[in-house]
Amino acid sequence: MRKSTTKRRAPPEKKRKKEPLEQSIEDALKLGHFIDYRKTWDFVDDLEEVSEKIDKLIDAGKPERAVSLYETFIAGCYEKAEEIDDSGGTFGMFVEGLFCGWIKARQSSGEDPKETAEILLSWMDNDPYGFCYQIERRALKSFNKTTLSAFEELMLRRLSSPAGKEAGDREGPGGSPSYRRRRAAELLKEIYAVKRDADAYISICNQTELTPKDCEVVAGIHRRRRRLADALAWVEKGISLESERPMGGVSGHQLYEMKRELLRKLGRGDEALESAWLAFEQHPDVYTYDELMKYVPRARRLEWHRKAMDAAESGPLDSLINLCVKHKELDRLADYIRRASNEQLEKISHYTTEPAAEKIARTHPDLAAKLYRTLGMRILVAKKSKYYDAALRHFERAKRCYVKAGTEDRWDALVAEVQEKHGRKYGFMPGFERVVSGKRATSDPSFAERTRRRWKRRGRP
User: Fold this and answer.
1) Does 325 map to a domain?
2) What is the pTM of this model?
3) Which residues, 6 or more positions from 202, have their beta carbon under 8 angstroms from its beta carbon?
4) pLDDT for 405-452, tens place per residue?
5) What is the full DSSP assignment across 112-129?
6) Does some domain include residue 117?
7) Segments of 274-377 assigned E as strands
8) Per 3-state DSSP, what percentage of the chain is helix, strand, and coil (rounded to 5)?
C-alpha cells in the first residue's frame, strides 16, 4: 500500500485568550485622541476606575495577572504621554501610583526582588516624560524589606563605581555618570531615612556635601529613637550650616522648631521660650505667635500675650491686623486702622481686611466703612472687572456703615471720587449708581432670596 505523500497540517496555534481588562485599559487611555487640560481630571478618573479593578486582583489571589496588567497600563501611559496636557500633574501622579501597584503585585506573586528593583531603576534612568521624578518617595513605602534591600544594593553599587554605573552598563539617556552617582546618593539617603539608620545616612553624607536638610533628617531619626541629645546636636549643626548657606541651597525648614521642641523635652524650657520669642520679634505674625505660646507657661499666658501684641506693633500692618482679628483685640485693631492711610490699606489682601471689617462693623462702624471703602477701591484701581460684583457689595456695606456712624459726608465724598476717577467703567457704574440711589447693586435676587422664595412655593416653579 502506497504511503500518502500529503503532509499533515500542523494544528493551528491556540490564540491567546484576550485579557478583558486590557481592553478596558485601551478604551480608558483613548490613544490617538488629545486630552485637553480642562478634561484631564475626568480622564484620570476613568483611568483610576480601571486601576482599582487591577488592584483588587492582588487581594483576590491573582497577583501574577495584576503584574501583567500593570505593565500594560504603565507602557500605555507612556504611549499616551504626548497626547495629554498634564499641566496640573494629575496624570503623572496617576502613573506613579501604577508603579507602586506594580511593585506590590510583584511582591505578592513572589517575583525576584532584585529584578523588581532593576526594572524600576531602568524606568527611573530612562524617563523622558518625568513620570518617575522623585517616585522614590512613594515607591519606598511600597517596598517590603527584601525589595528595599535589593534596591539599596543597586544604589550602593552605583555609588561605589567611579563611573557611577554598574559593570557592563551602557551610557544612555539616564544622565551623565556623575549625575547618576549623585542620584544614587540621594536615593540611599531616602532609603536610610525610611530605615531610620542614622549611621548609614551619615556615611553617605560623608561622601557628598552635608546640607541643613541632611542635619534635619538625621536629627529626626535620633528623635524618633529617643536620642534627644544627639538629635539636638545635629539640629545645632544644621542651624550653623543654614547661616552659611548660599541662596538657593538645600534648606532645613523645621530646624528651629525642632530645636525648641528638643530643648523643652530636655528640661531646658527657658531656652526654648527665648528662641521662640526671638523668632516672633523678627517676624511677628499669627504663626510665630502660636509657636511662641507653645512654650509659655500656662500661668503667664496673659502677660506674654500683651508683651507679644506690644512687640508686634513694629511689624507689618497686615500681620498686626491678622493678630488682632484672631485674638479679638478690637481696640488695638481699631487704633491701627484709624492711623493707617487708605493707600496703605489698599495694598493689603482682602483675606486680611474683609474679616477685620466684619469684626469691627458693630463697635466701630466708621472704621469698618473705611475698610469696605478700600476693599472696593482696590478692585477698581486694579481694573479687575471680574470682581466688580464684589466691589459693589463692599460699597453697599461701606454706605451702611457710614450711615450708622453718622458720617454720610464721607460717603458723599467717596461717591464723588468714584464718579470722577472711574466713571468710564461702564461694567461697574450702573450698579454703583443703584447703590447710590438706595437700591440693590443688582436687580437679580440673591441666592438666599431665591432659595427662600422656592421654599415658600414648596419647590413649584
Assistant:
1) no
2) 0.72
3) 218
4) 999 999 999 999 999 999 899 889 999 999 998 877 665 666 666 677
5) -HHHHHHHHHHHHHS-TT
6) no
7) none
8) 70, 0, 30
Does residue 399 lie in a domain region? yes
- Amino acid making up residue 382: A
Which amino acid is present at 393?
R
CB atoms within 10 A of CB 272: 19
Angle CA(104)–CA(106)–CA(108) in degrees, nearest 5? 70
Beta bridge partners of 84: 35
pLDDT > 70? residue 402 = yes
The residues, any chain, with a CB within 8 Å of residue 453's CB and separated by 6 or more, are: 445
pLDDT of the residue at 279: 92
Question: How many separate domains does the chain show?
Answer: 1
What is the Cα–Cα distance from 314 to 320, expressed in whole angstroms? 9
Question: Per the domain annotation, does 24 fall within a domain?
Answer: no
Segments forming the whole domain that contains residue 454: 342-461
Using alpha carbons only, what angle is made at residue 148 by residues 142 and 152, rounded to the nearest 5 degrees? 140
Q: Which residues pair with 35 in a beta bridge?
A: 84
Name the band, by pLDDT with cuts 50, 70 and 90, for residue 243: confident
* Residue 19, pLDDT score: 76
CA triplet 51, 55, 60: central angle to 5 degrees? 145
Q: 1 vs 6, 8, 28, 171, CA distance in Å?
A: 15, 18, 62, 67
pLDDT at 252: 57
Q: Which residue's entry shows cell 487708605?
A: 342
pLDDT tens digits for range 157-182? 998 876 544 444 444 445 577 888 88
Average pLDDT of the chain to the nearest whole number: 88
